[in-house]
UniProtKB/TrEMBL annotation:
It comes from the Bacteria. PANTHER family: ACETYLORNITHINE AMINOTRANSFERASE, MITOCHONDRIAL, AMINOTRANSFERASE CLASS III. This is Aminotransferase class III-fold pyridoxal phosphate-dependent enzyme. GO terms for molecular function: transaminase activity. Keywords: Aminotransferase, Pyridoxal phosphate, Transferase. Its cofactor is pyridoxal 5'-phosphate. Belongs to the class-III pyridoxal-phosphate-dependent aminotransferase family. It comes from Faecousia intestinalis. The keyword Transferase applies. The keyword Nuclease does not apply.
Length: 387
C-alpha cells in the first residue's frame, strides 16, 4: 500500500487507477503486489506488443545501453538510420522523423502538411480535416485535431485550423474539402479512444478519392493500431490506401518512448535543417529496441494476430451480456450491458487486465499472447459479462 499512498500524495491526479500495483511479469502474465498473477489484455495500452520482459527486445536494448545511451541529433547514430531504412522498405514511404510519442508524431504530421500546402498551394491552405470520434493526442495542437468535444472543454482557446467530418458521410467530407482551403485529411483506420470503430472500406476509399480530387495529403494516424496490431503491418494497408504521411508510436518502441512520422514521395523533402527538431527523438536505445520489434513483425506473426482475433470474435460476440465486438485484429472493442468501468473491475477480480474506450471494453493483448492464455482470459470475460 505504500506505493499507492505515495502516488496519491505526490503524483498529479490525472489517472483513475485500478487498485493494483504491478511489480513484475513475463510475457502476458503480470504479477501484482498482492501476490496474484494477471493475464494482460491491455499491454500498456498497446505498447508491450511482445509482452513483458521480452528476452530478444531486452537484449537489444541492453546491448545498446552498453555502447551509448544518447547522442545529440547533430551526429549520426546507427540504430536510428537502420530503423528508418527498415520502415521505408516495409511501407514504400521515403523519409522518417523520430520523436518521443504519438502526440509528437502527429504534431510533426500537422506541421509537415501545413508547410507543404503553403509551399505548393498557398499559405491560406492550412485547414486539416479530421473525423468526429477521433483521438490524436493531448498537446494543444493534437487536442484541437481530435474530433471529440469532451477533450476540448477545459482547454480553450485551442489552436484553429481544424475541420471535423462525420465518419461514413462521404458527401459531407467532399463539401468540407470543396468549401475550405485545406492541406490534408488525418484519419485513424480504427478509432481507438473513440470507441474502437473501424471507418470501413467504402469511407476509406472516399478519403483517398477526396484527397486526390482536391490535392490534399492523406495522413494515417497509426499510433495505436500500427505495428502489426491490425493483422497487417499498418492498419491503412487493410483498406488498400496509400497515405502521404503515416504517424505511429506505442508498439514500435516495445516499452520505450518512440514516435515516428513517415513521409511519402510528395512530402519527402518538406523539412530542411532547422524546420523541425527534437532532443530525445531517435534515441539510440529506443531505436535499437524498435529495430528488434520491427524485424519480428513478419507474415507468421501477422497470421497469428488474425487467428487470435478470429477466436476472440467468435467466442465473445456469442456471449450473453456482450452486444457486439468491433475493431480490427487485436484491437477489439466489446459493447456490453453494464458500465465499462464496472466490467473492467469485474475482470480484474477474475485476474484479467483490460482497458476501456468510452462505454466499451478495449482489448489490446500482446500480439504473441499464447492461445491457452488467451482462451483462459476470454472465458473469464464471458463469465464477467454473464454475472
Amino acid at each position: 500500500m505504500l506505493t499507492q499512498t505515495l502516488d496519491q500524495q505526490y503524483l498529479a491526479h490525472t489517472y483513475n487507477r485500478f487498485p493494483l500495483e504491478i511489480v513484475g511479469g513475463k510475457g502476458s502474465l503480470l504479477r501484482g503486489a498482492d501476490g496474484r498473477e494477471y493475464i494482460d489484455l491491455g499491454s500498456g495500452i498497446g505498447v508491450n506488443i511482445f509482452g513483458m520482459d521480452d528476452d530478444e527486445w531486452r537484449n537489444a536494448v541492453t546491448a545498446q545501453l552498453g555502447r551509448f545511451q544518447h547522442v545529440s541529433n547533430l551526429y549520426y547514430s546507427e540504430p536510428a538510420a537502420k530503423l528508418a531504412q527498415m520502415l521505408c522498405e516495409r511501407t514504400g514511404l521515403k523519409r522518417v522523423f523520430f520523436s518521443n510519442s504519438g502526440a509528437e508524431s502527429n504534431e510533426c504530421a500537422i506541421k509537415a502538411a501545413r508547410k507543404w500546402a503553403a509551399e505548393h498551394k498557398g499559405p491560406e491552405y492550412c485547414s486539416i480535416i479530421t473525423l468526429r470520434g477521433s483521438f490524436h493526442g493531448r498537446t494543444l495542437g493534437t487536442l484541437a485535431a481530435t474530433g471529440q468535444d469532451v477533450f476540448h472543454r477545459d482547454y480553450q482557446p485551442l489552436p484553429g485550423g481544424f475541420l471535423y467530418a462525420q465518419p461514413g458521410e462521404c458527401e459531407a467530407l467532399e463539401r468540407l474539402a470543396a468549401e475550405h482551403p485545406c492541406a490534408a485529411i488525418l484519419f485513424e483506420a480504427v478509432q481507438g479512444e473513440g470507441g474502437v470503430r473501424p471507418i470501413g472500406q467504402e469511407f476509406a476509399s472516399c478519403l483517398q478519392e477526396v484527397c486526390r480530387k482536391h490535392d490534399l495529403l492523406l495522413m494515417a494516424d497509426e499510433v495505436q493500431l500500427g505495428n502489426g496490431r491490425s493483422g497487417s503491418l499498418y492498419g491503412y494497408m487493410n483498406y488498400g490506401l496509400q497515405p502521404d504521411v503515416v504517424s505511429t508510436a506505442k508498439g514500435i518502441g516495445g516499452g520505450l518512448p518512440l514516435g515516428v512520422t513517415m513521409f511519402g514521395e510528395r512530402v519527402a523533402d518538406v523539412f530542411h535543417p532547422g524546420d523541425h527538431g527534437t532532443t530525445f527523438g531517435g534515441n539510440p536505445v529506443c531505436c535499437a529496441g524498435a529495430v528488434n520489434i520491427l524485424s519480428r513483425i513478419d507474415d507468421r506473426l501477422l497470421e497469428g494476430v488474425r487467428e487470435r482475433s478470429d477466436y476472440l470474435r467468435r467466442t465473445l460476440q456469442a456471449a450473453p451480456g456482450i452486444r457486439s465486438v468491433t475493431g480490427m485484429g487485436l484491437m477489439l472493442g466489446l459493447e456490453i450491458d453494464i458500465p465499462a468501468r464496472e466490467f473492467a473491475e469485474r475482470a480484474l477480480r477474475e485476474g484479467v487486465l483490460v482497458t476501456t474506450a468510452k462505454q466499451k471494453i478495449r482489448l489490446l493483448p500482446a500480439l504473441n499472447i499464447p492461445m491457452e492464455l488467451l482462451k483462459t482470459a476470454a472465458q473469464a470475460l464471458v463469465h464477467c459479462a454473464a454475472e
